[in-house]
Amino acid sequence: MASSTGPELERLIQLLARLPGLGPRSARRAALHLIRKREALLAPLADAVRVVADRVVTCTACGNVDTSIPCAICQDPRRDPAVLIVVESVSDLWALERAAALNARYHVLGGVLSPLDGVGPDDLNLASLAERAADPAVAEVIIALNATVDGQTTAHFITDMLQHLPVKVTRLAHGVPVGGELDYLDEGTLVAAIRQRTTL
Amino acid sequence: MASSTGPELERLIQLLARLPGLGPRSARRAALHLIRKREALLAPLADAVRVVADRVVTCTACGNVDTSIPCAICQDPRRDPAVLIVVESVSDLWALERAAALNARYHVLGGVLSPLDGVGPDDLNLASLAERAADPAVAEVIIALNATVDGQTTAHFITDMLQHLPVKVTRLAHGVPVGGELDYLDEGTLVAAIRQRTTL
């Protein structure tokens, strides 16, 4: 490759190949696509990556990424100050924002407890969560972690950690996904859906 | 989304989503990955995209992309000036360079003839190919186009176009791919492989 692609292009391809979802081959395709769409895509992307590299920061309050500290969500006066939603990652925060189910603030843990991967309580933003939950304004902490073993372990750890506080700790409901077919669901989900059935 | 991700991040996600192989969801994952690997990936990518946007140009001689005109391959004195390899795209050029099968120069057509898609002879770099093939130094033109209907139509068009020149026009061999199993090959490939069988 080095003989046919110059070092500049080779470097771009190598960096693109490190993005999740792209490999060496698709990174080459992406690089060629960028060069073909020079005005429409390559130049704007150069600006956009530079702006994000220079300006995007992690919010020291909640762990969200934005161009200001505190982030736009933490600053938003319309958000309910009584509710904190605990999520594993910024992508989960974005998913909940897209669903627009709640108008509250978030707390990004930056992972979940995972003894096998060597992730302990000190590796997560748990101390700052305890601090924020101790704020008298906070009435409820909604734990919105993945329904995996590690996610549920972390949920229990947080419940224990916040037990001494006068704050209500809740978690997302388990059940049949909207649009889901019973035939394709695992037994655990069906049992949860039956146990937590609601009156019509 | 607009409320949770700032406009800078949103713009980066939108541009990444237009790369081949990435969609809206994987573009968000890629953007978050970039922010997480700020020093190792985001800042270098910002530089790399800027450098490519500023410096990479299309070679006016062969159609390759590089930082100089003529490109490194056209300038390389070790390349055989007697052989021209005709390819559809820069990615095909790169594929042949990786195979390192030939030490010759290239001519990138920028597509193949496709009446259905409205691609005619004037849309491809055919006039410049005729010009280069007319150079007395060129003894052979190897047509390395895809073995598709459009690729073969284009190969025939080029053969006709160069007929009056004292140049040998060849094409890549058809046959069993190295490592390929006969059971999985189509009849056309098997017929070609039998017709063009070689003595052991």
TrEMBL record, chains A, B:
Q: Which CDD domains match?
A: TOPRIM_recR
The signal sequence is none
GO BP annotations of the record are: DNA recombination; DNA repair
Q: Where are the zinc fingers (C4-type)?
A: 59-74
List, in alphabetical order, the Gene Ontology terms for molecular function in this entry. Answer: DNA binding; zinc ion binding
One Pfam family it belongs to: Toprim_4
Keywords carried by this UniProt record: DNA damage, DNA recombination, DNA repair, Metal-binding, Zinc, Zinc-finger
* Domain annotation Toprim: ranges: 82-177
List, alphabetically, the InterPro entries matched: DNA_Rcmb_RecR, Rcmb_RecR, Rcmb_RecR_Znf, TOPRIM_dom, TOPRIM_RecR
Supply the Gene3D superfamilies for this chain.
Answer: 3.40.1360.10, 6.10.250.240, RecR Domain 1
What family does the Swiss-Prot or TrEMBL record give for this protein?
Belongs to the RecR family.
This molecule's function is given as:
May play a role in DNA repair. It seems to be involved in an RecBC-independent recombinational process of DNA repair. It may act with RecF and RecO.
Protein's UniProt name: Recombination protein RecR
Native source species: Camelimonas lactis
Which lineage ranks, top first, belong to the organism behind this chain? Bacteria, Pseudomonadati, Pseudomonadota, Alphaproteobacteria, Hyphomicrobiales
